[in-house]
């Protein structure tokens, strides 16, 4: 005998209330800052508007510069003053430095292999040290100075040519985006992988429109609140469609990054002992081969750092 739809919904609600009650009963009792009363299951998500930072500002004016909320089943402490920020980011930074496990870290950062989503452990500490001493040191940045100068000069030539030929206003943001992409591409990947125009370039390039879509999706999905991260039993439903978008994006990004790494591996094999690292991917691949690393860097780790 099949249950009526209302009975199924009632069963889910009752199960959720029971789990929430057990969660509250078994969790440790902490002295939390003041904050609004939380609803069952959703917590204080009902107080978040389309601009969450505005909502948090309005709540902080009522409950103070240090307040507690609950997003779904996840307790959240919000600091919104200079003193609170100093306490969280400086005085007690080791207590707050860890990262939660989220769908974004799993699907868009190679299972939390990037600096942004990696938990605070030996892997993260090693990664930070490598970025400071090997990848973004003053010496390394100096090596890329010519690329920055060349791309800025190219942008200025394009601006002059476009304004001279049409006499109309120029969309400066498009030129700035291309200049930034070209500088980053040359520093990190060794050459320009992004080209103008929607018709596409050669086999080893992608269009600015395609690359722009990838980056916009990446930034959005890494900043959006996925409801399944705060109400775990809703994760499989993917009610916002974010996980589906993350999976699609990860496939496109991985295809692009695999192409980049294959080309760099081929040059390393071709040059042999005469190989010299020319960009960040070269350096990352060399580091991944280093047997003295405390925590090995996998190929997925190289792609996560590159991303």
From TrEMBL:
InterPro entries recorded: Cyt_P450, Cyt_P450_E_grp-I, Cyt_P450_sf
Transmembrane segments: 6-23
Matches recorded under SUPFAM superfamilies: Cytochrome P450
Family: Belongs to the cytochrome P450 family.
Descriptive protein name: Cytochrome P450
One Gene Ontology term of the molecular function aspect: monooxygenase activity
Upper taxonomic lineage: Eukaryota, Viridiplantae, Streptophyta, Embryophyta, Tracheophyta
Listed Pfam families: p450
GO terms, biological process: secondary metabolite biosynthetic process
């Amino acid at each position: 005998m099949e249950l009526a739809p209302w009975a199924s919904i009632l069963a889910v609600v009752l199960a959720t209330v029971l789990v929430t009650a057990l969660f509250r009963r078994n969790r440790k009792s902490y002295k939390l800052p003041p904050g609004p009363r939380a609803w069952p299951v959703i917590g204080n998500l009902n107080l978040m508007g389309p601009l969450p930072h505005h909502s948090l500002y309005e709540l902080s004016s009522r409950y103070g510069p240090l307040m507690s909320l609950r997003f779904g089943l996840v307790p959240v402490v919000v600091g919104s003053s200079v003193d609170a920020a100093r306490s969280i980011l400086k005085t007690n930074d080791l207590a707050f430095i860890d990262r939660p496990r989220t769908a974004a870290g799993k699907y868009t950062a190679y299972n939390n292999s990037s600096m942004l989503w990696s938990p605070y452990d030996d892997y993260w500490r090693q990664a930070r040290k490598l970025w400071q001493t090997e990848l973004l040191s003053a010496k390394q940045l100096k090596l890329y100075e010519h690329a920055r100068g060349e791309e800025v000069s190219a942008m200025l030539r394009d601006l002059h040519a476009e304004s001279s030929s049409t006499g109309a206003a120029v969309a400066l943001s498009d030129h700035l985006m291309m200049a930034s992409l070209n500088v980053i591409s040359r520093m990190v990947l060794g050459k320009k992988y992004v080209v103008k125009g929607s018709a596409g370039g050669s086999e080893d390039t992608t269009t600015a429109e395609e690359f722009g879509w990838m980056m916009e999706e990446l930034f959005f999905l890494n900043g959006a609140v996925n409801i399944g991260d705060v109400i775990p039993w809703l994760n499989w439903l993917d009610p916002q469609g974010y996980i589906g978008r993350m999976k699609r994006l990860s496939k496109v990004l991985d295809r692009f990054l695999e192409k980049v790494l294959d080309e760099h591996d081929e040059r390393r094999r071709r040059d042999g002992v005469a190989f010299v690292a020319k960009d960040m991917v070269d350096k990352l691949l060399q580091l991944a081969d280093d047997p003295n690393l405390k925590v090995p860097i996998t190929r997925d780790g190289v792609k996560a750092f590159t991303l």
